[in-house]
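Q: I'm a student working through a structural biology exercise. My instructor gave each of us a protein and asked us to get a predicted structure, then write a short paragraph describing it. Mine is Putative secreted protein. I'm not confident about reading structure output yet, so if you can add a plain explanation after the tokens, that would really help. Here is the sequence I was given:
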Amino acid sequence: VDFLALPDEIWSRVLICLEPEDLLSIESVSSRFTRLTFDKTILRRVKFRSEHHMDLPDVRRFFRDTRPLAITVLDFTNCVWLPSSLLEQCIGRCLNLVALKIVNCRLSVLSVYKILVRLKSLESLEWSLFSVAQTSVSTIQKLDMRGPLPVCNLRDMYVELLESTVHVDVLLRILPRCKSLRSLHLHVVGTSIVDYTHLPVPNPLGNLDRLEFFTYTTDIVRGRCPYARRSPVIESADLWRIVFGKARELMQTFCVKATVCGNVTMRLKTPHACSCVQLSDILRGVTSCSELKQVCVTVECPTYLVRAAQLEHWEHVQELAFLSPVPIDQPTFPPGIDLSYGHFFLSLLNRCRNLRELNMTRFHFSAGFNCCKVVAESGLHHLVVLALPACALMSSGGPPPLECFSASHLTELDIRRSVPTAHSICSSCSDPHTCVSEDLVPVAKMKSLLRLTLCNLGNVNTLTFLKGCQVQELRISNLGRKGLCPYNNGLADTLRENKRLASIKLDHPVLPLGSRLLWDALSHAVGLRRVCLMSSSHNDVLDRALVFGAINKLAKLTSLHIHTNAVGVKSFNGMLREVLRLSGRESQFRLHVDSADKLDLDPDTIFSSEQSTLCRTSNFVGFAKPRNRDVSDL
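A: Happy to help. First, here is the predicted structure for Putative secreted protein. I'll explain a few features afterward.
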């Protein structure tokens, strides 16, 4: 078959799947391919891969002549290897750009603003504010000097930022200029301790009068929420005045819900709606979550399930989280859902016929109630992602509850125990017979599973139950007792047999980072691309030879994080980098070694997506999600 003789229509379908680097290579074959690589149908969507570091001259060559004018969707997500000046130059040539993704890029604040003003057709922007040090007072002042130039057509904006005054000051200058915004999503990835004094805004702050939807999510790990350990809401009256305008009641609702959940979506136009609601308010008709595809419902009392199961408006919900009420002045949660309400709980789930994600991590059950059986027997035929509390896996002498999902189509399973805090604990989750190793054996039978997360399960003292498990992403945090790490018991066999594993997270207060068994086990997983190891021990000493030996066997590795409080972390980091440089492997992946008490946010060494899903084991099942966190990226 003469492939070169194929018509342009066929070649266009092939070329549309290629990356910029491949298009540059193929255009030199003939003048025909040169013409095709400038075609609008092929260049409509262009994505640069973070792991493919093109030479900078090649990047400039790709954006030459009329090619930039054909691009309407451009994605530079995680391309930290590109300097700000080059990014600004290349993006600025794409005058017909409609959507731009520059999360985790080196693009400066001023460059982002110039792009917003220059690209008149831009409707969607995803970007990040990471470097507090570079976002200086002079940068803020330069923005002020440019005056209130409007950004006319931008409809959708997603911003990743730190909980810092300087980043808020930037938003106070950028957001009021985006008068046409219909949707705004702020995702807080961390905090900053940089000393900075708030600069007053010289121009009157305008409101986002056309804003219809506002979403607030966070990755900060402190507070009482087990799935993300809540973040306090950013304290800035000016920022919330821009978002909510004069709707003080909506602002107050947002602040309360964000404090409890750390994850809220608000519909600001009539009829108003909030993704976080009390079931009693729904039953009384006081609040509505109609038309919202993602809802978080607090079930204050199990008896409310009786009436809730009769409501019709659950069909539109695709992502659902249930919460038990936070007890006030009580040491434990009230008794959870028991057998007497099983029928009504099943009826409610049957109403959610379009549900794809269900999060019950903070929704608790009494002993004897088989939550897994109820979910499996419900009509949730589209359910692919499930998050459960430890008390959902209380076996009463029969088969493990997870056996109900052996033949399911679940792609993600998240199981974690409620973290005891100063507020409350779930007595069922804390029972020594709840969620033991044997209860997790059915996990290996779930053939469709891509991501498995196990957190704070103190009764799990071995990993042998993972033998035969074929997940792509494995996240394990704080299993077993605090003073004894059980991971070496079964880890090697698990990794040796799993040929699909691309990402692994191992976190334990005394994870033996200096153990040959640990590094030998990791070296068996030849398909690994991302590894994160975390230990709070001050006594474990990292062995450079062991680490480097494992790295040499992991040819596909693109990211290695080691978080440890052991002595000599900085010197070890320097020595390992030097060894990697001499061996020629330094440029192949990102190495990040730091203290377990402080996760660095330098995008050169750690992406926000990696920090979220790997380092912090965040759980966004059933909640609004930050961009750039998709397990399919593996």
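A: Here are two points you could use in your paragraph. The longest strand covers residues 183-191. Residues 501-618+626-634 form one domain. It's a good idea to check both against the output above yourself.
Q: Great, thank you!
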